[in-house]
Amino acid sequence: EPEVTQTPSHQVTQMGQEVILRCVPISNHLYFYWYRQILGQKVEFLVSFYNNEISEKSEIFDDQFSVERPDGSNFTLKIRSTKLEDSAMYFCASSEELNEQFFGPGTRLTVL
Amino acid sequence: KQEVTQIPAALSVPEGENLVLNCSFTDSAIYNLQWFRQDPGKGLTSLLLIQSSQREQTSGRLNASLDKSSGRSTLYIAASQPGDSATYLCAVRRYGGSQGNLIFGKGTKLSVKP
């Protein structure tokens, strides 16, 4: 069964460093999303991406964040200068249409 | 602003019991509602999707209902098993959003005792 994959599973970085989180969405899906979940809190929407551009973003997704689909299979989230409060589980999701979203296993980001 | 609330926050039941998890949302203008399961430290597994025009969806021992006008959904789990122990999340996709981001509740942590 097709699934969303994410790498790495755990990323540890120093405050101020840049990180890139990688995702491979399900191959025939057209809509891509990033969410995050700070420990003990709700899953929060960050950004959605369709037709090679950002279609919607939340207040969390400020200038420190960017997304890219560098090729036909990968979808990346970049945080330019990490802060302590960026520590969270980051989930990638994809959907074929504006329907059921399928989530990856997540990348746990720890900022020291 | 859409808010999603799930009650109870935690639930412990003996194996074999039928149970109901509740989800409420403040704005009835939703496109669809999705129930997920999350195991500790893991990703989200989609369980059921209900479109706004539907009243319920069933998958195996799971049945989800939707009452859009009252802003409520329930997830019914029949004959619970220890393997059902997980956190169950409810999420709504609002109507009219450009690409439909999901708004999540905080979840109900279910523990099924053998």
What does this structure look like?
The complex is a heterodimer of chains A (112) and B (114). By secondary structure, chain A is mainly beta. Helix content of chain A is 0%, strand content 51%. Chain A contains no helices and eleven strands. Chain A has strands spanning 5-7, 10-13, 19-24, 31-37, 43-50, 53-57, 65-68, 75-79, 88-95, 102-103, 107-111. In chain A, the strands form two sheets. In chain A, strands 2, 4, 5, 6, 9, 10 and 11 form a seven-stranded mixed β-sheet that branches. A four-stranded antiparallel β-sheet of chain A has the order 1-3-8-7, with no helix packed on it. In chain A, a hairpin with a 2-residue loop joins strand 5 and strand 6. The radius of gyration of chain A is 13 Å and the shape is globular. The mean pLDDT of chain A is 94. With 114 residues, chain B is an all-beta fold. Helices cover 0% and strands 59% of the residues of chain B. Chain B contains no helices and eleven strands. Chain B has strands spanning 4-7, 10-14, 19-25, 30-38, 44-51, 56-59, 62-67, 72-77, 86-94, 102-104, 108-113. In chain B, strands 2, 4, 5, 9, 10 and 11 form a six-stranded mixed β-sheet that branches. Chain B has a five-stranded antiparallel β-sheet with strand order 1-3-8-7-6, with no helix packed on it. In chain B, a hairpin with a 7-residue loop joins strand 9 (86-94) and strand 10. Chain B is globular. The chains are: A mainly beta (112), B mainly beta (114). Chains A and B meet through strand 4, strand 5 and strand 10 of A and strand 4, strand 5, strand 9 and strand 10 of B.
